[in-house]
Amino acid sequence: MATATYNISTYLLDRANIHYTVTKMCLLLDLKKFSELATDVFDEQVRVDYTSLLGGELYTISGG
C-alpha cells in the first residue's frame, strides 16, 4: 500500500475546491441552470475509494 503525504497546503487547497464546488452547485440549483449543473459540477463517472475504511477495491459509479 502506498503512503500518501497530506500536508497543510494540500488540505487547504482541497478545502477551497470543495467549498467552491458546493457553492457553485447551490447557486446553479437556485438559478435553475440545470444544464450548467450537469456539465460544470457533475461528471459522467466518479471513482469511489473506501478502501481505508471498509477494505476491498475502488469502484466506479456511472451516471445515466
What is the helix content?
40-55%
Overall geometry comes to flat
Beta-strand portion reads: 5-15%
Number of strands: 2
Order of helices and strands: HHEHE
Mean pLDDT level:
89
Calculate Rg over CA atoms.
Answer: 15 Å
Distance between the termini: 33 Å
Domain SnoaL-like: 11-55
Organism: Hymenoscyphus albidus
Protein name: SnoaL-like domain-containing protein
What can you tell me about this protein's structure?
53% of the residues lie in helices and 12% in strands. The chain has 64 residues and is α+β, with helices and mostly antiparallel strands. The protein has one domain (8-62). The chain starts with 7 loop residues before the first helix and ends with a strand. The mean pLDDT is 89.
Provide a brief overview of the structure.
It contains 3 helices and 2 strands, in the order H-H-E-H-E. The chain has 64 residues and is an alpha+beta fold.
Supply the key terms.
SnoaL-like domain-containing protein; 64 residues; SnoaL-like; two-stranded antiparallel sheet; 3 helices
